[in-house]
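Meet today's protein:

…
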Amino acid sequence: DTGDLSRVSDSNCIGRFRKMITVEEFMSSELCTMSETDSVNDARKVMTERHIRHIPVTDDENRLIGLVTQRDILAATVPEAEGRENKTSDEGGVDTRLSDIMIKNVSVVDKTDSLRTAAIYMQSHKYGCMPVVSDGRLAGIITDSDFVAIAINLVEQAELNEEELGSEDIMLSR
């Protein structure tokens, strides 16, 4: 099940067929997951220590049941201008469980899906990440930071190709 992401066939062809680049090739597979019974405070600590902004929430069988983002944590722990300034219980989310704040209907991508399709979906929905599944289990996560790294790599390759073409032009003109 790929949630809200419909499986779109993307042939990536120019003239001849090229190999489709899959989500699996660029996803992060070393994940930090949490349980729905973990506290907001625990999630905030993990995000700070590991420098991450998204934590998948899984059950005992590694099935995705939710997602917590840094924005969710901030909203649950920072008093807002109205309504929460007098709140005295559970300051910092010590007693608030992730099940109370997590995103429950999470859009996911399968690890065999096209990287391009996942990128377009994330961009059009303004998502910072998408959990990656395989056979109904959490397999990884792909984030906007992963796509920035891909873009940097592509720019570096393009610059190297330009330098090589420029040096070929110099050699040919001799």
Notes: Strands lie at 13-14, 16-17, 54-58, 64-69, 109-110, 129-134, 137-143. The first strand starts at residue 13 and ends at 14.
